[in-house]
Design goal:
Chain lengths: 100, 170
């Protein structure tokens, strides 16, 4: 039997990698992929807790997280397309119109 | 023993693949490593007796979201992308923040106290099948959040069309 804390540590490591990618990549598409990585880490945590606590509610919550992740990906990629049309770049450090 | 070995393989592969996703310069390579990562996460769900969630993970993430990402990656100029630096100038700040967050949340595991186990034991799920148990809970106790989720998806469809549509000539 694999202990619960192993799953939690795995999920936290993946979450931290996602945080690192979101904070330090230049390409906005990779930043969105990092957000998906973080949502997947949360899903691993929810489903492992649901299995070990013998309660189905964690999996219901993971289900909703997947639905919201799909909606978020669609909106985010539409924003990237709008950005690309107006600025012809996907690099976040070149978009600085609001910098004082 | 064999369970620990399986878990060790999947955990190792998931960590390596997520590092590769974050550090590859070519976005197409990142997306393809992400595909492999999603399959490994789905097998981890199978390992946790959540076969419906594993199927949803493969269908929605690998089949839907990643194809969307690949379409958007096609828009950009990969050749120019390979020449510029892949990290922003302040990447050590991001690394410090991520490592600090990891240390803090791993330290917080020690104070985790498990609640008393619920009624959905492995025997009950095996007797009732996983999808049926999940569906019963989803359509009775969680019916209202389920309807709200459908509204979220509707808003996402309309928002994507409004954002990505070309502006009409006045």
């Amino acid at each position: 039997m694999v202990p619960l804390s192993w799953y939690m540590v795995l999920s936290m490591v993946v979450f931290a990698i996602g945080v690192f990618g979101f904070l330090s990549r230049k390409n906005v598409i990779i930043m969105f992929i990092s957000i998906e990585l973080m949502l997947n880490a949360v899903n691993i945590n929810l489903i492992s807790l649901s299995h070990y606590l013998q309660d189905m509610r964690g999996q219901i919550l993971a289900f909703f997280v997947i639905a919201v992740a799909a909606a978020e990906a669609v909106i985010g990629l539409a924003i990237i397309i709008a950005l690309f049309r107006n600025k012809a770049t996907v690099h976040v450090d070149e978009v600085k119109e609001m910098q004082g | 023993m064999i369970q620990q070995l399986f878990f060790a393989y999947f955990a190792f592969a998931i960590v390596i693949f997520s590092l590769l996703v974050v550090t590859r310069k070519n976005p197409v390579h990142s997306v393809l490593w992400m595909l492999l990562l999603f399959f490994h996460i789905a097998s981890l769900y199978l390992f946790l007796n959540a076969e419906f969630m594993a199927a949803i993970q493969v269908i929605v993430y690998a089949g839907g979201i990643l194809v969307l990402f690949l379409f958007v990656v096609m828009l950009m100029n990969i050749r120019e992308e390979l020449l510029v630096n892949k990290f922003i100038g302040a990447w050590p700040t991001g690394l410090t923040f991520a490592v600090g967050l990891l240390v803090v949340i791993i330290m917080s595991i020690k104070s985790f106290i498990a609640a008393p186990p619920g009624i959905y034991s492995i025997e009950l799920i095996k007797q009732e099948t996983h999808t049926k148990a999940l569906g019963k809970l989803l359509y009775t106790e969680f019916l209202y959040p389920f309807e709200v989720t459908s509204l979220i998806l509707l808003v996402a469809i309309i928002g994507a069309i409004v954002l990505a549509k070309r502006r009409l000539k006045p």
